[in-house]
Design a protein that fits this description.
The chain folds into three domains: 3-80, no CATH class; 87-315, Ribonuclease Z/Hydroxyacylglutathione hydrolase-like (Metallo-beta-lactamase, Chain A), CATH 3.60.15.10; 317-370. The protein is of the alpha+beta class. The two termini are 41 Å apart. Helix content is 26%, strand content 25%. The strands form six sheets. A seven-stranded mixed β-sheet has the order 8-9-10-11-12-13-16. Strands 17-18-19-20-21-22 form a six-stranded mixed β-sheet.
Length: 371
């Protein structure tokens, strides 16, 4: 039996961002949802999803599990499946220090529903933002940025810094680029955005971004900006979350935006297909801990505003869980056997809506196998 179905996939890396779920283009399958579950959305549409995704959707009241015989024959629009943005899941502005703020989704039961956390410097020079979230949240993002302006004529978004290339951090690049914002990123970000990309881990393909979405200033290792009376240091950390990551340090305000090198309180996604590695991520986080002040305030790529203490805890989790998997591999155990044994109970708190324990073990196992 040949079915035309839509496979439900999460927008990358905004781990736990159910509000950012979209459906891919129609894909023809000759098998019936093998090892997955049919689920019907509240709008009557059907998709084939993993058991973990199905559980997350049902828990939030966005879908109902169906029998294996359910399928759809007519194409549907992605917009038909997106939950409507309401007053319950817009943005919150979190003051951080001096003129630095953070934008995050209000509804923390749907973590980071705007995409990655957005950093903002607002002052007499105008606005500088770090990452720009998901496209569907653009109007809310612009409204909050307008409120952050410090004078009637300083609401222009002068600079946009991309921490890396993932869609939940760069979806609004084209909009800001069209409005004369200067986009800055590590060189690999431009290379990745300017050509088609695929993330097999999520079954996702991306077309090349338009010219206006591409960074017009790139750097290999680091760059400094002097903006709103502050020295801002942007530093590339290689082969961590991806091969394109940068962190941003506001030297006067003592605020550090770590992008997706830090998923606060969650197992991270590591993009092994694009130069990331668990070992590299762990080493980079250790470098951050050693090189930045103990009292620095940290904007993570996902999760709430935090501090060095939580980053140290996160680093400890990376080290311990990697060692557990490595020891099991050294003992000759297969991936499935390691997943069956699982991690000690103390690591259950790190499970997110998309990266559960089994998935994290898979990421670590794959990373160790590749390096």
């Amino acid at each position: 039996m040949k079915l035309t179905i839509f496979v439900l996939i999460p927008i990358v890396l905004s781990i736990g961002i159910i509000s950012a779920i979209q459906f891919s283009d129609a894909v023809e399958y000759s098998q019936i949802c093998i090892d997955k579950i049919w689920i019907e959305s509240t709008k009557g549409k059907i998709a084939c999803v993993t058991p973990f995704t199905a559980s997350a959707l049902v828990e939030r009241g966005w879908g109902t599990i169906l029998t294996d015989d359910a399928f759809i024959e007519e194409p549907i629009e992605m917009s038909d499946q997106l939950p409507e943005l309401t007053t319950e899941n817009k943005l919150e502005v979190i003051p951080v220090a001096n003129n630095i703020s953070m934008l995050i989704g209000i509804d923390q039961s749907v973590e980071g529903n705007i995409g990655g956390n957005i950093g903002v410097s607002a002052g007499s020079d105008g606005l500088l933002i770090i990452d720009d979230g998901m496209e569907f949240a653009l109007d809310d993002i612009k409204a909050q940025l307008f409120e952050l302006k410090t004078c009637a004529t300083c609401d222009d978004i002068e600079f946009l810094l991309n921490t890396h290339w993932h869609v939940d951090h760069v979806s609004n690049n084209a909009h800001f680029g069209e409005h004369d914002t200067i986009i800055i990123a590590q060189s690999n970000v431009r290379d990745l955005l300017s050509s088609p990309q695929e993330q097999k881990a999520f079954g996702m393909k991306f077309d090349a971004y338009p010219k206006e979405a591409l960074p017009i200033i790139t750097f290999d290792e680091s760059v400094f900006l002097f903006f709103n009376d502050e020295k801002i240091q942007v530093t590339h950390l290689p082969n961590g979350h991806t091969n394109s990551d940068s962190i941003v340090y506001f030297t006067g305000s003592n605020v550090l935006h770590l992008g997706d090198h830090f998923f606060n309180g969650m197992f991270p996604f590591v993009d092994l297909e694009h130069g990331g590695s668990v070992e590299g991520l762990t080493n980079n986080v250790e470098k951050i801990i050693n090189e930045y002040p103990e009292n620095v305030q940290i904007i993570p790529g996902h999760g709430p505003l935090t501090n060095m203490e939580d980053l140290v805890d996160y680093h400890g989790m990376l080290i311990e869980t990697t060692k557990i998997v490595q020891d099991q591999m050294n003992a000759g155990n297969t991936l499935e056997e390691i997943q069956d044994v699982g991690l000690p109970e103390k690591f259950q708190k790190w499970e997110g809506a998309w990266i559960d324990e089994a998935t994290w073990i898979l990421i670590v196992h794959t990373s160790l196998s590749l390096n």
